Amino acid sequence: MKNFTLREGEDHIRLGQLLKAMRLVDEGSDAKYVISEGQVSVNGEVCTMRGKKIHDGDSVEYNSHTQQIQFESP
């Protein structure tokens, strides 16, 4: 499991943006495809919404990679 830290002042990141930020996909169109195909899970449930807001404490799994979302420490 790898951690992804939100920047200070952010309370969420959208699912498609997270996949790109973690370099699990190369482009937004790749994120759109894998999400719409049901290859991504949020908190253990398949999610097909690219714009889903991912918050502190959520976990995202794609292609055997799990990302735990955390707020950045001040």
Layout of helices and strands:
Elements: E1 2-6, E2 12-14, H1 15-21, H2 28-36, E3 40-42, E4 45-46, E5 53-55, E6 59-62, E7 65-71
Parallel strand pairs: 1-7
Antiparallel strand pairs: 2-5, 3-4, 3-6, 6-7
Helix pairs in contact: 1-2
Q: In brief, what are we looking at here?
A:
Helices cover 22% and strands 36% of the residues.
Descriptive key words:
alpha+beta; about 20% helix
User: Given the C-alpha coordinates, what overall shape results?
Assistant: globular
Q: What is the assembly state of the chains in this entry?
A: single chain
Mean pLDDT: 88
Strand order of the largest sheet: 1-7-6-3-4
Instruction: Please describe the biggest sheet, giving its number of strands, its sense, and whether it closes into a barrel.
Output: 5 strands, mixed
Descriptive overview:
With 74 residues, the protein is α+β, with helices and mostly antiparallel strands. The protein is 22% helix and 36% strand. The protein contains 2 helices and 7 strands. The strands form 2 sheets. Strands 1-7-6-3-4 form a 5-stranded mixed sheet, with helices on one face. A two-stranded antiparallel sheet has the order 2-5. A hairpin with a 2-residue loop joins strand 6 and strand 7 (65-71). Helix 1 crosses helix 2. It is globular and about 30 Å long. It starts with a strand and ends with a strand. The mean pLDDT is 88.
